[in-house]
Amino acid sequence: MDDDALPLFRPAMQGFRWDAVAHQPYKQDGSAPFKDISRQVLFQQDNLACELRYFEMDPAGYSTLEQHEHTHAVMILRGRGACLVDRTVQAVKPFDLITIPAWTWHQFRAAPTEALGFLCMVNSQRDRPRLPTDDDLAALKRDPAIARFMSTT
Ligand code: MN
After folding, report:
1. What is the pLDDT of residue 32?
2. Catalytic residues, which ones?
């Protein structure tokens, strides 16, 4: 978004939406590695080196399991769920802070009956995510806690 077009004040609306912020549900088909997740880019300006996005998953939704060189700084804003960061599965609640270092596997999953929403700060210039191979998945699932996390639907 070019800075001239960015209003100085954008009121929050009902349901974790913001005025003048596009709500972008991710397109998904049967093979998509994510489920029922949407993105709203809150801040993205030429004179900022980072972006702030709000992601939300419907109950039982999940983000893509991925890794990349860039890092994420996350604050949970809504709901309940769990995240995997590296080899750790952690239950999360509003206002928890999560650091996702470079080249660590990470995924967010909403609780079965509750949406999960979080703010995610990220570099504007960043590499593309890498998805797990079958071998990567098998290695992760050798840890029972990770296997349980990944089978939550
Ligand atoms: Mn990521």
Report:
1. 78
2. 120
